[in-house]
Each structure stands twice: as structure tokens, then as C-alpha cells.
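Colleagues,

For the teaching module next term, I've prepared a clean inverse folding example: a structure given as C-alpha cells, and then the sequence designed for it. I'd like students to try predicting residues themselves before seeing the answer, so please don't circulate the second half yet.
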């Protein structure tokens, strides 16, 4: 397939230039097409101004001019900078280049026509241009006929012209045959452009309206494919992984429910029944409990913790902040403490590892554990932590020891997925998110 061919199969790209593309993670023609231009960096050459037409209000403007001279100068503090003076019909503009920008001035010779975009303000003898992006104009092509051109991220000796030329060749191949990634029914329903049209307009848009349509298509495609991947993962873990089967609600759950200082609402009872039935199944539970503030999510979680303890396991609930962790810890202690259940609070303010005595206590006598982002490992729990809940995507910090990290992966329940891992010193922060297949809603009336 053409999209798997190396970029060297395109005209004008040899081994040396291919190595430059490789620095941008572009090795195949498909990689090249999927390397989109820099966000909001398109140049509208249909509105190129002459130097005499430029306003001096320090706004970014696009103009063209011919190189008059290139001069190196020094500031009052001895800092070196370069000034490129361009002219057009008797009007002049000075383009100021500082620091690393100065080195690009070597390739600009007197008489060259440049296309410049930069902030323009009033100068002493000529208009002052700063924060400039400069490109050498192609004398064989009318500037106004260029339309809207993309601006790509570059490296080494690569130029915008070289990348654009390569992308045009790749688009010519895509026009002949390009497989679609979205179902035809969804494209029609969502009124999205086909993949080739979207690729063409993301690289060389016919108008900014077509560019917006192309962006919409690729944003939807990315989210659609991500959702398909999550659904595949969810179905796969249902087949290959077994959940912890709990028994029916017993005396402990009933006692906790009866000791509550209020009666459960109809919505809370329904949500609890759905969660309880999930826990009694041998398949992993993937349920989202949603509701407004004060709708009763915490009390339903407390019942789930009680059910877990009743079946001989421990449970863990995570929240994003220490303040919320403290508030819920006090609430859960009130709900569960009356029945002799112990709840422990662990937060990120715990700067030292859990002591052997505390760990032994957690493993032997803690029924529910409540934490925000405490340093946890699988050794902080008893044999099995059977219930895990979170109020949002959360971060677990573990020792960078390889065995500990691998043990944590095996400990994570099947409805959790790793979304990012980053290392800092001796610790590894693991960002996890939930994969849900059902939801329960709590409503306030």
C-alpha cells in the first residue's frame, strides 16, 4: 500500500532529506499526511499587502517586499541583532531578528522577494517589523494565487516549500485510493467530509470554512476511534477477566442502612440495587454513579463498602483533593463506625512511607480505606481489594521499584485503565481512568 512506502519514494526526497523528516517522526507517506500543519498557522496569501498598505498598530500582517540590505547591529547593551530592510514601490520596512532568529538571515540576499508575516509598528525611517516569520517567494508563482498555505513544524534544513511539495505528492496518491476510517452511515448522519477531502483541506484548504469542516472531521474521528478502542477493551476484559462475586445483602448491609439518619430516596434505592446486583455477578463491575452535589453518591458508596466488608474483603475510594477526602472520611466514619467498621484516611500529605505497624493495621483491621492521592502499593491492602471507586480520574503514586509497579498493575481492578505514567525522583505517578458500561443516576426532587 502506498501509505506504507518510505518518503524517499516521493520525488525530491533523498536519504539526507529523509533523515530530516525522520526527526519529525515521519518515515512513510502515511506519516507525512497525518502530520498536520501547526494549529492556526495558515497563511492567507489572497490578502497579501504591500509595504505602503501596512498599518502601524502593532498587529500581525502579511506583506511582501524585496530585500534591500541585510545588516548586523548592536544594541546599547552590546547585544547583537540583525536588520533585514525590504522595499516595495519606494516604501521600506525593517525586519528585526534577535537571538537564534539571526542565523536565518544568512540565506537572504539582495534582490530576493520575501513573504513576511509579523507585528508592524511605526519606526524612525521605516516601518518596524518584529516577531517575523519569513519565507522566500517563488518567482514563478503569483503570490495572490497561492491561496491559503499551511505552516508546518520544521527541523534542520527542511523548508516549508519542501514539506508542501512532498505533501502535494502524497495527496495525489491519496486521491487515487484512500481507505475510509468512519462508517458511511456516520459520515452521512454527521455531515462530515470523506477522509480524502478532509486531508486535502487540512493541508491545503480551499477556504477557512472548508478548513473548519476538515478539523471537525478529524476531531470526531479521533474521539470515535478512541471510544471504539475503549469498547473493545471493555468487552475483552469481560471475556478474559473474572470479577469478585459477592453474596446477597446480609445483616451488615441491612444494619448500615437502618442506622442511617435518613431514609434512602427512591433514586438512591434504585442506584444501590443496580450496584448490588453488579457486585453479585462474577463479571467485573463497570458502573458510573452520577448525580448532583448532595444527591447521595457518598451514602451509596458507603453501602458498597459495607457489602465488600461483609464478603471478607477491603474497599478503597479515591477523590481528587485532600479537603474532599477529609470530608468524606468523616461522613463514612459516621455511617460505618456505628457497626464497628474501621475506615482509614490516607492523603498525599503523608510524606513518609507507611510504617510497618500502620501497614499491618491496614491489612488486618481496616475495612474501608479512603484516600485522595496517597502513596499506595498493593502491599498496603490485604489479599484482595474488592471494591474500588473514584469521584474523578485520579493519580496513584508508587515506588519506582519495578516489582512494586508491576504488582500495582495486577492489583488494579479490570474497570480501570492506565492513561499516563510519569516518573519523578523515586516515585512513579500513574494516571488512571474508569471504563464504564452502565450508569446509575441520582436525582433530587
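(Answer key — instructors only)
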Amino acid at each position: 500500500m502506498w501509505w506504507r512506502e518510505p518518503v524517499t519514494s516521493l520525488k525530491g526526497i533523498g536519504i539526507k532529506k529523509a533523515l530530516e523528516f525522520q526527526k519529525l517522526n515521519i518515515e512513510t507517506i502515511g506519516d507525512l499526511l497525518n502530520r498536520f500543519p501547526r494549529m492556526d498557522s495558515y497563511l492567507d496569501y489572497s490578502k497579501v499587502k504591500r509595504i505602503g498598505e501596512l498599518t502601524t498598530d502593532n498587529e500581525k500582517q502579511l506583506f511582501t517586499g524585496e530585500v534591500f540590505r541585510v545588516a548586523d547591529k548592536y544594541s546599547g547593551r552590546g547585544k547583537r541583532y540583525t536588520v533585514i530592510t525590504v522595499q516595495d514601490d519606494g516604501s521600506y520596512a525593517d525586519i528585526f531578528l534577535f537571538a537564534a532568529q539571526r542565523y536565518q538571515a544568512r540565506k537572504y540576499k539582495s534582490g530576493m522577494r520575501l513573504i513576511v508575516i509579523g507585528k508592524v509598528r511605526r519606526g524612525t525611517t521605516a516601518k518596524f517589523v518584529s516577531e517575523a516569520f519569513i519565507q522566500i517567494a517563488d518567482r514563478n508563482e503569483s503570490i495572490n494565487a497561492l491561496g491559503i498555505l499551511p505552516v508546518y513544524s520544521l527541523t534542520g534544513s527542511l523548508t516549508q516549500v519542501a514539506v508542501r511539495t512532498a505533501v502535494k505528492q502524497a495527496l495525489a496518491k491519496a486521491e487515487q485510493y484512500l481507505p475510509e476510517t468512519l462508517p458511511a452511515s456516520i459520515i452521512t448522519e454527521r455531515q462530515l467530509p470523506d477522509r480524502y477531502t478532509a486531508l486535502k483541506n487540512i493541508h491545503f484548504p480551499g477556504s477557512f470554512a472548508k478548513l473548519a469542516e476538515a478539523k471537525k472531521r478529524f476531531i470526531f474521528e479521533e474521539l470515535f476511534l478512541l471510544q471504539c478502542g475503549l469498547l473493545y477493551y471493555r468487552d475483552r476484559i469481560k471475556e478474559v477477566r473474572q470479577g469478585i462475586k459477592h453474596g446477597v445483602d446480609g445483616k451488615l448491609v441491612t444494619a448500615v442502612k437502618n442506622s442511617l439518619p435518613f431514609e434512602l430516596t427512591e433514586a438512591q434505592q434504585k442506584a444501590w440495587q443496580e450496584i448490588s446486583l453488579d457486585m453479585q455477578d462474577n463479571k467485573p463491575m463497570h458502573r458510573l454513579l452520577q448525580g448532583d452535589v448532595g444527591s447521595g453518591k457518598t451514602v451509596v458508596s458507603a453501602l458498597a463498602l459495607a457489602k465488600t466488608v461483609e464478603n471478607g474483603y477491603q474497599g478503597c475510594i479515591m477523590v481528587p483533593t485532600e479537603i474532599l477526602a477529609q470530608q468524606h472520611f468523616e461522613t463514612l466514619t459516621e455511617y460505618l463506625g456505628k457497626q464497628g467498621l474501621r475506615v482509614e484516611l490516607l492523603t498525599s500529605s503523608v510524606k513518609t512511607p507507611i510504617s510497618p505497624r500502620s501497614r499491618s493495621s491496614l491489612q488486618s483491621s481496616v475495612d474501608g480505606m479512603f484516600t485522595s492521592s496517597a502513596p499506595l502499593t498493593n502491599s498496603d491492602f490485604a489479599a484482595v481489594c474488592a471494591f474500588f471507586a473514584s469521584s474523578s480520574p485520579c493519580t496513584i503514586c508508587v515506588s519506582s521499584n519495578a516489582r512494586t509497579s508491576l504488582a500495582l498493575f495486577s492489583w488494579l481492578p479490570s474497570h480501570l485503565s492506565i492513561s499516563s505514567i510519569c516518573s519523578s525522583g523515586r516515585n512513579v505517578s500513574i494516571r488512571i481512568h474508569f471504563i464504564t458500561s452502565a450508569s446509575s443516576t441520582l436525582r433530587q426532587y
